[in-house]
Write a structure and sequence with these properties.
The chain is an alpha+beta fold. The chain has 2 domains: about 200 residues, Thymidylate Synthase, Chain A (2-Layer Sandwich); about 70 residues, no CATH class. Strands 1-2-8-7-6-5 form a 6-stranded mixed sheet. Helix 2 crosses helix 10 and helix 5 packs across helix 6. Belongs to the thymidylate synthase family. Bacterial-type ThyA subfamily.
Length: about 325
Amino acid sequence: MEQYLQLCQTILAEGTVKNDRTGTGTKSMFGYQMRFDLSKGFPLVTTKKTAMRLITSELLWFIKGDTNVKTLIAERNHIWDEWAFEKWVKSEEYDGPDMTDFGRRAAQDDQFQQIVDQQMTIFREKILTDDKFAEEYGDLGPVYGRQWRSWPSKDGQSIDQLKNVIESIKQNPDSRRHIVTAWNPSEVDQMALPPCHTFFQFYVADGKLSCQLYQRSADVFLGVPFNIASYALLTHLIAKECNLEVGDFVHTLGDAHIYSNHMDQVNEQLSRQPRELPTLTISNDKKSIFDLETSDITVDGYDPHPRIKAPIAV
């Protein structure tokens, strides 16, 4: 994963200090590209422990067209909790402690972090046990899963982009139109978080499937390791579906940034020596990627350095 570490080093050395939507502040650069040869190992960051189970369950959540955090919370995946939680604590129904700017405040105040944790526990329990509450506050709007599987068309129908692109790869592998987009301008304002990984394209050559992702906004410490592994996994899954080998994953970043409260963590990670990449195993029991469960996908030989904690900017 030298490519990822080089990205971190480049931003630290050449990035511009900028303000951002969250009020945290970043060091940022615009336009950066990494390439990973998927035949040489699965690109899961080894300089800190990265939870493959969470990456897998989130990707399968997208693939199934789901947009409600209830599914993820039931699988002990809390990647999206903060955005749904924010919707609840800003509502008239919420009557607990003041949660204004809870992400940044909790990062600076351990006592307030405990209060947030208590309220988050209440929120998750209500999501799992109260269907009406989950429908109201668990749904994130028309985020990735909706756009991938049910893009609204002008005739009132919907377009299954993911299923269509798989069929296109099978039937017309040399096409230059193997594209899925999550950026829907007419629905961006309805999303809890506008898509960061905005569109991706597949390319077939020499019996191998490659994928290029354009990511408009890239949280380099927390988000990018997940994004690399997620789209590498998606490439593997679709290659298997289409009876192809894997080629490259090309990751193109727009605004690539390190948050100001992640600098120490990035430097700690850069002090560590990368280890050998793991390998990916996909069960042969399911015929379609749309039927896969988290337990059907495993990585073998993953021996990372310990996890490095950092606050998320909401």
